[in-house]
Specification:
ATP binding; binds adenosine-5'-triphosphate; 11 helices; 33% helix; ABC_transporter-like_CS; four-stranded antiparallel sheet; 296 residues; Rossmann fold; six-stranded mixed sheet; alpha/beta; single chain; 27% strand; transport; AAA+_ATPase
Length: 296
């Protein structure tokens, strides 16, 4: 698991990270969302043991990321936001180099990932498209079957089919009990995968939200009903159900009592369509993303 506790690092320009505390459990996908310059990479650099915290600490599987960095790296998979490949190498040269550095004894997972992401490994890296390079970086991040995986904008450059494949891979890894942190500045990159999303702005965490409980709450509060005629709309407005709004042949009613009671009353109407309107998850998060509001 990943445990970041009151992590603070102020650069000479007063930018940086301030009192950041987050926890990523085993079997959890944690979305780390924030605009450019928010502090995501600085957090990741602490996790990789590249920066010494001024205050607080970052730990992976109980090891301190700064003082015990050597104990962490073999269990860590990292996908950088921008990948610098060595000139003149082909994809397979790069993967061989990484396998050698990690002293990998089996190439089984690597072969499986190459096939899954349909990567032509003979192509020289400098001739690869952005998407191909991204696939290569994904294979490299996952091929040693790490316990903890840190991904910086992992789906950038991938086409929709490959993005879907990547989402499937993340779900499989999560189900195997891996600890996964995905950093991104776009909500859509986290929407289909993250269990928890934290929003960081100007070096501070301003919101941490369990996505599953939020989804549960969101679907509960109203029903949208379309009737065949205006009379039924007038009738429901004058009934003892709570009508939040109405227009044309449609009315939105509040789910403010036993569902059986609501359906009992609705059975007296001729209903054309029935829907549970969803507030978009993205809209809820974007409010925090753009505003200065401080919540936890
Ligand atoms: N070594 C440094 N010296 C001074 N300022 C720095 C240093 N590293 C980062 N910063 C500043 O700290 C802030 C956080 O940067 P960071 O790269 O962590 O943001 P980010 O959320 O990863 O952004 P992006 O999405 O653009 O990658 C920025 O304002 C950045 O300019």
């Amino acid at each position: 698991m990943i445990a970041i506790d009151h992590l603070t690092k102020e650069f000479s320009n007063q930018k940086g990270l301030f009192d950041v505390s987050i926890q990523v459990e085993k079997g959890q996908i944690f979305g780390y969302l924030g605009p450019n310059g928010a502090g995501k990479s600085t957090t990741i650099r602490h996790l990789l043991g590249y920066i010494k915290p001024q205050k607080g600490q970052a730990k992976i599987n109980g090891f301190d990321c700064w003082s015990e960095a050597d104990k962490i790296h073999s269990t860590l998979g990292y996908l950088p936001g921008e990948i610098a490949f060595i000139e003149g190498m082909s994809a397979i040269d790069f993967l061989n180099l990484m396998s050698g550095m990690r002293k990998l004894s089996s190439s089984h997972k690597r072969e499986e990932l190459i096939e899954r992401f349909d990567l032509d490994i003979r192509v020289p890296v400098k001739k690869m498209s952005k998407g191909m390079k991204q696939k290569l970086a994904i294979i490299s991040a996952f091929m040693h079957d790490p316990d903890v995986i840190i991904l910086d904008e992992p789906s950038s450059g991938l086409d929709p089919l490959m993005q879907k494949e990547f989402v499937n891979l993340l779900h499989e890894e999560k189900n195997k009990g891996k600890t996964i942190l995905i950093s991104s500045h776009i909500f859509s990159e986290l929407e289909d995968t993250a269990d928890v999303i934290a929003i960081i702005r100007k070096g501070r965490i301003i919101k941490i939200q369990d996505v599953h409980s939020l989804r549960g709450e969101m679907t509960k509060d109203s029903y949208e009903i379309e009737f065949y005629n205006q009379e039924d709309v007038n009738r429901i407005v004058n009934s003892n159900l709570t009508v939040k709004s109405y227009a044309g042949n449609k009315a939105i009613i509040a789910v403010d009592r036993e569902i059986n009671e609501i359906f009992g009353q609705l059975s007296q109407y001729k209903i054309k369509t029935f829907d549970v309107p969803h507030q978009r998850l993205e809209d809820i998060f974007m409010k925090y993303y753009y505003n200065e509001e401080e919540h936890s």
